[in-house]
Structures are given as C-alpha cells and as structure tokens.
Amino acid sequence: MAKALFALILCLCAVLTSVPAHSASTPKKTLTWSELNQDQRTILAPLSNDWDALDAPRKKKWIGIAKRYPSMTAAEQEKVQRRMQDWAKLSPEQRRTAREGFKSLSKLPPEKKQSLRDKWEEYQQLPEEEREKLRSTKKAKKPPIKPSGLPTSSAKIEPSPTTTK
Most exposed residue of 11, 44, 52, 160, measured as fewest CB within 10 angstroms of its CB? Predict the structure, then answer.
C-alpha cells in the first residue's frame, strides 16, 4: 500500500510539474459539475463525485488538462484517465498524505529527486514476487501507530467519581 501511494505521489508530481498554468483560458469563478460542458464532463468523469468539493486552483488545473486532452496522444490520454481514476479511489486521508508527500518531494533538490526516480525505476523492474517481499518486510518493520492522547496499555484508568443525590 505504501509503495502504491508512493507511486501515485511520483505520478502526480510528474503530471503537476508538466501542467502549465492556463490563467487566461479558464474562468474566474469556479464551475460546478453541471456548469462544465459535455466534453469537459466526459474527460473529467472520474472526478465527478468530488468535483464540487474541489477548490478553485484544482478545478482550474483540471479544466486546463481537459482543454489540452484532445491534443494528447492516446497513451497520454490513457495515463491521465488512469491517474484520475486512481485519485478518485483514494480516501480523503490518503489524498491528504499524497498532497503532503508531493509538497515534501517538490522541496527536494534535483539530485535527490533523480535518485528517487532511479530507485523507483529499479523497483519497477523487480519481479512481482520480489516487490511483494519488499512490501511485506516494510510492513513488518513499521511500528504500530498509537493515537495521540489515548492512554497506553500500562496506564491505569481511574473510574470517574459518581455523584449521588
């Protein structure tokens, strides 16, 4: 799961860094899903359930992608559709994590970014069995997540005093 999320973050980085701003060609107000034209709704269909909750800059970005979509190659169109579908499947927490990962990755120096790309390509070349083995060893090494503010198992929980009338 972590590797898949990391892959999605890397893919989003690639898409977002290759998407030029289209300030003159996009509307000033944010459009609701029903206000998009039929072509835009067809292209952006994987985002339909979340569209109205997106903020203005994200809507602007996706409208720009939809505008360029007809001029993309079939492979580029397929990649855009797959990434939109993958994004739509993420939970809000996974999306937040992906955005945070993107922000931290974008702050890395170019040589570190290239090193990560190289490692990812190396990982992608591994047979599925090897990748599964790496995923399972990574899961085994992760410490359990403890919610903050909750008592640990060694803490003694005192019952609250009851008042009688």
Answer: 160
Task: With respect to residue 63, please indicate whether it lies within any of the assigned structural domains.
Answer: yes
Q: Which long-range contacts (CB under 8 A, 24 or more apart) does 72-77 make?
A: none
Q: Is the pLDDT of residue 154 over 50?
A: no
User: How far apart are the C-alpha atoms of 112 and 115, rounded to whole Å?
Assistant: 5
Q: Locate tokens 């994590």: which residue?
A: 97
Judged by DSSP in three states, 87 sits in helix
Task: Decide if 31 contacts 73 (C-beta within 8 A).
Answer: no
Q: Which tens digit of pLDDT belongs to each residue from 5-56?
A: 555 555 555 544 444 444 444 445 678 999 999 999 999 999 999 899 888 9
95 shares a domain with 59: no
In a domain, 109, yes or no: yes
Number of domains, the chain = 2
Label residue 94 by pLDDT band (50, 70, 90): very high
**Residue 41 resides in a domain:** yes
Q: Which carries the bigger pLDDT value, residue 3 or residue 153? A: 3
Would you list the DSSP string of 88-145?
HHS-HHHHHHHHHHHHHHHTS-HHHHHHHHHHHHHHHHS-HHHHHHHHHHHHHHSPPP
